[in-house]
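Appendix B. Raw example, untouched.
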Amino acid sequence: MSDTFFKRHLIVSMFLGSLLMLLGIFLMFQQDSFVRFFISLLGIFLVGSGASSLLALKKYQLGSRSKMATLIQALLSIIVGLVAVIVPLSTATVSWTILLYLIAAELVFSAVISFLDAMLLRKSSFSVSGLLTQGVFSLFVAVLLFAFPEAIGTMLLKLIGVVLIATGLGMLLWSLRIRQINKQFSKSTIEAEAVIVDESPSN
């Protein structure tokens, strides 16, 4: 490896490490903004989940009642998801706890429908792994929202902040290691060149 490569790697590692640490520290003090972002993210998931269910509904070999339940679940997911996306972007004063409870209730309903559809489709040629994954994820997030409606945003924010700070610190330590390797590499190169000069035949 060339000396230029080591220096470039060192600069990039130190820059990214410092940037991640600053971002992690910054996020620690952005609780309200993060709650809005988190709710919007859940809304996007609900809209995507509902749209996916609508698109796949024609492929499901279900009875009329099951199809109707899946259709209702898909439409509710889209409606609640749109509300969760739009409200945080508006200036309206709302209770985030109530909105999180609403999202959690929809996630539970979505999980139940996903599990029921998976049970009804398990003997068909349709793969139910996607339904099961969606159901488990929806149920897991819903449990977290019901258990920690007011603290979920803070918990996730601190977790992400700690991860970013730890990652940035790791990159800084790695850049120091790269710097040490660079010095050892330069020293070895100089010593090798000195040996070659000493061993070269004199004219």
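End of appendix B.
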